[in-house]
Amino acid sequence: MSEKNLQSAYIKMGIIMSIIAAITYPLHYYWNPEIKIELAIVLLFSLSIAISSVGIYHFLSLHTKRPCLEIGLKLNVLAALIFAIAGSVKLAMETPLEGILIQGNQSLLYALTDRIFMSLSFLWKMLFGFGLILLAVPAFSHPRTGKIIPSLGVLFGLSMLAVNFYSFPFAPEEINMVALGPLVPLWHLLVALIILLSGNWVREKLSEE
User: Quick check: 40 pLDDT over 70?
Assistant: First the structure.
């Protein structure tokens, strides 16, 4: 497959994965299925948001390639990986340990594991916040994204950074603040819509290379 065809494939996959990410994230937080199904949802969101980021990167780089685009992509992919780890840790914590440890040690283990989860949860949100900003900034000069979509990306990213830094070490919802994690797949979905509406432009740019 040529580089041009590969780039086109990444952009198309990015659209599909943005939709999947926008569906799986609320399922993860507002649905309480059997633990294996929930684990599958966590892993699917992680995979979909990472590939969505790759698609957005290739779409934006058709106009101009900037270092912040590559950094934003890497931060989003790293955040997706940490989300998968954090989600797996949380689900593992829900597995009963009766018969393995005495109650005192079990309580200590749960407390330590809970702190690990809290740290990982904070980290992926901060990385996604920075990633959103770094992907959104180059979009200001992109001929298809306008100014509203990039502005929302910067606003969403800054809001995530501020809220999660303020609430650390607790999750925002634990101190009566609004959790802003859903802003990540929402912005990706908005960009996917722009890509869908830019099919002719994408084909023209790919044919120029």
Answer: yes
137 near 63, Cβ under 8 Å? no
Residue-wise pLDDT for 127-158, tens only, equals 999 999 999 999 999 999 989 999 999 999 99
Residue 189 in tokens: 């979905």
Least confident of 1-5, 99-103, 128-132, 138-142: 99-103
Number of C-alpha atoms within 13 angstroms, CB side, residue 68? Answer: 13
Q: Which two tokens stand for residue 149?
A: 């979509």
CA distance 77 to 50: 5
Cα separation of 200 and 209, whole Å? Answer: 15
Over pLDDT 90: what percentage of the chain? 53
* Contact of 172 with 164, CB cutoff 8 Å: yes
Average pLDDT over residues 114-136: 89
The alpha carbon of residue 133 and the mean position of all alpha carbons in its chain are separated, in whole angstroms, by 12
Q: Which residues of 166-181 are buried (b: 16+ CB within 10 A; e: fewer)?
A: ebeeebbeeeeeebbb
Instruction: Give 113: exposed, middle or buried? Use CB within 10 Å, 0-12, 13-18, 19+.
Output: middle
Phi, psi angles (nearest 5°) of residue 96: -65, 145
